[in-house]
Amino acid sequence: MSAGFNGRGIWAIYKFEMARFKRTLVQSLVTPVITTSLYFVVFGSAIGSRITEVGGVSYGAFIVPGLIMLTLFTESLSNASFGIYFPKFTGTIYELLSAPVSSAEIMLGYVGAAATKSVLLGLVILATAALFVPLHVLHPLWMAGFLLLTAVNFSLFGFIIGIWARSFEQLQFIPMLIITPLTFLGGAFYSINMLPDVWRTVTLFNPVVYLISGFRWSFYGTADVQVGISTTLSLAFTAICLVSIAWIFRTGYRLKN
Fold first, then answer.
1. CA 56/CA 210 separation, integer angstroms
2. Is residue 224 a contact partner of residue 187, using CB atoms and an 8 Å limit?
3. CA nearest 165: which of 76, 77, 72, 73?
4. In sequence order, what are the residues at sequence separation of 6 or more whose Cβ sits closer than 8 angstroms to the Cβ of residue 2?
5. Are the C-beta atoms of 117 and 22 separated by less than 8 Å?
6. Using CB atoms within 10 A of its CB, is residue 178 exposed (0-12), middle (13-18) or buried (19+)?
7. Over pLDDT 70: what percentage of the chain?
8. pLDDT tens-digit profile of 99-133?
9. Whole-angstrom Cα distance, residue 158 to residue 124?
10. Do the Cβ atoms of 126 and 69 come closer than 8 Å?
11. Residue 1 pLDDT
12. Whole-number Å distance between alpha carbons of 13 and 99
């Protein structure tokens, strides 16, 4: 543990993680551009020809917040989980734990870098989407807030997954088999109000619904769930992740054994 706040320690971890991102910068930026374009070709053309508007918004514009959220979820999880898992895999985690940085500073370094990467990719997708459909962000400050909050939340969650995982297979398990399906079922490409009442009630138990709904509200002023509820639940998820990470470092769960 360090005495006081060790900003240089946080910066060292952050800079190291961002350097890994820069080494694959072209691949990291080109992939979301191609993927976003394909989504617009498939969803915008195939489905958009049948569903012209959702809640007064053209279908092409309606799916933009969902596309950005899908990228934020997956990229935040993968970047944060791999960032902390790799030192465990190589054994250098013990050097990090014995260094003069606190657990909070370690978390800030890794989570900050993962969230930064995700936000940058989210902005790239936003710029790419603007080439396909006219976009107007009704509440830009709320949009930026939800963008940052979602990136931080899933980076924190990814940090927990990276510590929990004991293999690369486990590292991919939750993002591929849980988060991605929840995103597709959480209103990323449709409004949950289009569902029958029973299925709409079931969908409300999906936490991803509230993040997507709140983010979409910042664009168009329409949401499946009240923005206050979305914000409250997002902050509650942040608190749960922070408490979980504090417990992990206090007990050494899968870090010191």
1. 20
2. yes
3. 77
4. 9, 100, 101, 102, 105
5. no
6. exposed
7. 96
8. 889 999 999 999 999 999 999 999 999 998 888 88
9. 22
10. no
11. 41
12. 12
Q: How far apart are CA 246 and CA 252, in angstroms?
A: 10
Interior CA angle at 20 toward 211 and 255, to 5°? Answer: 75
Which of 58-67, 110-119, 176-185, 236-245 shows the lowest per-residue confidence on average (mean pLDDT)?
176-185
Per DSSP, what are the bridge partners of residue 245? Answer: none
Q: For residues 127 and 122, what is the distance between their CA atoms, to the nearest angstrom?
A: 9
Both tokens of residue 22? 């820069």
Single-letter code of the amino acid located at 250: R
Where do the structural domains in the chain lie, given as residue ranges?
Answer: 7-251
Is 146 exposed, middle or buried, given 0-12, 13-18 or 19+ CB atoms closer than 10 A?
Answer: buried
Residue at token pair 């005495």: 3
Q: Is residue 2 predicted with pLDDT exceeding 80?
A: no
Residue type, 223: A
